[in-house]
Amino acid sequence: xxxQEPDWNAxxxxxxxxxxxxxxxxxxxxxxxxxxxAYLIAWNRQSVLSDPALKKLIDLWFxxxxxxxxxxxxxxxRFGGVEIKSHWSxxxxxxxxxxxxxxxxxxxxxxxxxxxxxxxxxLRKHGQxxxxxxxxxxxxxxxTGHIAFHKARLAADAxxxxxxxxxxxxxxxxxxxxxxxxxxxxxxxxALLALGATDAEFYGWIWRDTSAFINxxxxxxxxxxxxxxxxxxxxxxxxISVPEKVGM
Length: 248
Fold this sequence. Notes:
Helix content is 77%, strand content 0%. The protein is built from 8 helices and no strands.
């Protein structure tokens, strides 16, 4: 696996108040990205984990989340911070995941993946630090794969369970994305603003990324339906018997 470790010994590119605010932000992300219960914790999670293939993918997903926690831990040391063990937003999120069931948990974690992806892209853009950008590159690559996993999972639900991702679903999905983004923004706004980001940039990115996910999911579902239609059409054509010519 070609993963180049960030240059943790490179000269610091961030200082002063921006560094102080960034340190607090990374503390919270380090706790959420594998520092806490890096696995499904819903009371009925076995309904999902009983599928061996899906369990394998989920294992790989959370293994990468623990790797993100490791990277963020090194970033904390670089910036003079220490790991934290709890935070109100993290405790609330875990409580909801645990008691509202695995369906909610998976949807909530998808929303978290999308808004975290935006966070790391903004951190890479505005954080003038070599090691920080190297870390963001690694995490962004992983998060892209995680989001693709969720898209494939939802597309499978459309194929197997007949789920329809129509206008109402899309509106609710965008609303959840904005809500998840707002929770993130409450905790991390000061750090990103100190680095040069803006409110409009953050919410614009949230909107674009949630829309991109919806459009990509719909394309995958429609592609599968088109493939099925062509397959059925081919079978029908192959099963049509051509009558023999009748002599005059």
